Amino acid sequence: GALYTVVSAVAGRGGILIDTPGYGFGDGDLMEETAAQLRRLDGLVCHLVVPATMRYSEMERRRQHFSPFAPSRLLFTRLDETEYFGPAWAFARESRLPVDWVSTGPGVPEDIEEADAFRLASALFGKSTYMSESSGQPASNLASAASAGEARS
């Protein structure tokens, strides 16, 4: 389909972010169609994007909802909006999906940064403050906790 054609045309030019917002619980057929088109792309890495401010049960609900895309990684957003990362930490641990990227602000892609397990684990245990690389502002400690025990492949 059209999505495959567009993405194939720009492949090789660097990272491509494909956002799939707006899929409601009644959009299963549309999600399946989109996921099928994306599966045709070589080298696709699918991240489940989850706000760190969300309750654990809602994170789990989102994972089930977006299962047609078969996400293999997590990307936590809104790290700058919470100091309570227990639900996100538990979700990352229980889902066993590694966290490669985090978002520490509203900008895309400028506020998306690679998860740094050491920096974030230090912040988790109160040894330092995790700072957003792009803004220099304090961000949540979640990302390290989520990625600390997971190896990237």
Description:
It is globular and about 40 Å long. It contains six helices and four strands, in the order ααβαβαββαα. Mean pLDDT is 76; it is low at 127-131 and 137-153. Helices cover 36% and strands 12% of the residues. It has helices at 2-10, 28-39, 56-65, 86-95, 117-124, 142-147, and strands at 47-51, 73-77, 99-103, 112-114. The chain is α/β, with parallel strands linked by helices and 153 residues long. The two termini are 29 Å apart.
Mean pLDDT: 76
**Rg, Å, rounded:** 16 Å
Strand fraction equals: 5-15%
User: What series of H and E elements makes up the topology?
Assistant: HHEHEHEEHH
Oligomer, anyone?
Answer: single chain
Estimated structural class: alpha/beta
- Count of individual helical segments: 6
Bin the helical content.
25-40%
Widest β-sheet, arrangement of strands:
1-2-3-4
Outline: globular
